[in-house]
From TrEMBL:
Gene Ontology MF annotations: DNA binding; RNA polymerase binding; translation elongation factor activity
Protein name: Transcription elongation factor GreA
Organism: Candidatus Phycosocius bacilliformis
Keyword set includes Mitochondrion: no
UniProt KW keywords: DNA-binding, Elongation factor, Protein biosynthesis, Transcription, Transcription regulation
SUPFAM superfamilies in the record: FKBP-like, GreA transcript cleavage protein, N-terminal domain
Stored InterPro entries: GreA/GreB_C_sf, TF_GreA/GreB_CS, Tscrpt_elong_fac_GreA, Tscrpt_elong_fac_GreA/B, Tscrpt_elong_fac_GreA/B_C, Tscrpt_elong_fac_GreA/B_fam, Tscrpt_elong_fac_GreA/B_N, Tscrpt_elong_fac_GreA/B_N_sf
Length: 157
């Protein structure tokens, strides 16, 4: 069974979503199904079919979250250090074509949010940066063509 790396915050967020689905969403959809059943003929009951579809989604998501949490490898970023880029690092890069500066934190797949500067460990830019140090230049295959970034800082905040 393959481990899934994630930060403590990412693990807590998945755990909170799982608890919400089990304690709020699941009982609500069960109530909606029983309410829709009371309206009679189920073959033409749109409320019933919508509630059953929602229930299917919720049960699937619960199973997915339970699997991910069971395989989670929680990495305490506060205990990491060094000059090499690895999981949990906050990396400052400069685009060599545009001289634009960007800051990315390398996190687990479920935690990634580019708007917040968090990129997945499996993203092309993160894979290119892993193992590199400050001053190294990385080539990233992007949809618009190859991009070059210089790593200017590696932090562990």
């Amino acid at each position: 069974m393959e481990k899934i790396p994630m930060t403590a915050e990412g693990h807590a967020a998945l755990d909170a979503e799982l608890k919400r689905l089990k304690t709020d969403e699941r009982p609500a959809v069960i109530g909606a199904i029983s309410e829709a059943r009371s309206h009679g003929d189920l073959s033409e009951n749109a409320e019933y079919h919508a509630a059953k579809e929602r229930q299917s989604y919720i049960e699937g998501r619960i199973a997915e979250l339970e699997d991910k949490l069971a395989r989670a490898q929680v990495i305490d970023v506060s205990k990491l250090s060094g000059t090499n880029v690895k999981f949990g690092a906050t990396v400052t890069v400069i685009d060599e074509d545009t001289d634009q500066k960007a800051v990315y934190k390398i996190v687990g797949e479920d935690e990634a949010d580019v708007k917040l500067g968090k990129i997945s460990i499996t993203s092309p830019i993160a894979r290119a940066m892993i193992g590199k140090e400050e001053g190294d230049v990385v080539e990233v295959a992007a949809p618009g063509g190859s991009k070059s970034y210089e790593i200017v800082a590696v932090n562990w905040a």
